[in-house]
Amino acid sequence: MLLFAGLSYAEDKPVRQLKAFLKNTKSLTADFKQVLINEAGNPTQTSYGVFYLQRPGKFRWDYLKPFQQQIVSTTGKVWFYDTDLEQVTVKKLDESMGSTPALLLSGQVSLEDNYTMEQQ
């Protein structure tokens, strides 16, 4: 299943399954691979790491390669820690974060209002 930022929505079985998963999942740990793609559709950077979720409202992304970075959220705030720069940036976890997967998993935004879904 793919998630896309957008405004359309159809209530079908995959959508109901994802909504149930998001509602009922209290904790989750997963390895991830993130690929940044440019406007031409070509991959420009691939990152790897580990993702942790504990509901309500807590998550952590540990980027391990190619650059170490940590993103942590607890109760309405997000901390971005850049290991190389030894710098922390703190932001509110709200609509200003856009339609990111992190915001979706936090449970603080509506699936219907912020994502277009299609099954593959």
Automatic annotation (TrEMBL):
InterPro entries tied to this protein: LolA/LolB/LppX, OM_lipoprot_carrier_LolA-like, OM_lipoprot_carrier_LolA_Pbac
Localization per Swiss-Prot or TrEMBL: Periplasm
GO cellular component: periplasmic space
UniProt keyword Amino-acid biosynthesis, yes or no: no
Domain of life, per lineage: Bacteria
Any Pfam family: LolA
Keyword Transmembrane helix included in the entry's annotation: no
UniProt xrefs under Gene3D superfamilies: Lipoprotein localisation LolA/LolB/LppX
Keywords of this entry: Chaperone, Lipoprotein, Periplasm, Protein transport, Signal, Transport
GO biological process: lipoprotein transport
Subunit record text: Monomer.
Family membership: Belongs to the LolA family.
Protein name per the record: Outer-membrane lipoprotein carrier protein
Record gene name: lolA
